Predict the structure.
Amino acid sequence: MKDQLMLIGEIADFFGVSRKAIRLYEKKGILKPVKVDPQNGYRYYSAAQVQQLNALLELKSLGFSLEEIKSVLDGATTKAKLSDMLEKKRRAWLETMEAARYRSECLEQILQNLSGIPGAEHMKEMTDDERAWMLVKMVCIEEVRAQKALSEALWL
């Protein structure tokens, strides 16, 4: 039987997770070893459990909590509820991507602003007031965005 089972260290190394993490999944009742050797305490996992760990790690990387993952792996979640959970995670990732896209646009605007500010290459030589004013002109892009939006709205 041991030939068909994997030790906790083997699956931990295979998936790049710690043994401690796998023990936590065991403690939470998500992934229980198929066998624990009473003499040395070694934990053994079957191929099906390795597949469960793979699913657990994938769901975790998508933002699911351990409680949500447990309900999915236990079969306690209906197809409709799982679909709802997946859709909520998808929307959350879309919002995260939109926020990242916005930040990227902000950085692009700051870079453009920086290139248009004379004397910016001599920041060390500026007074605190001059440096503060330059930074305000460089990073205050909301006003620029608002002006662009208003301009676009007026021309529609």
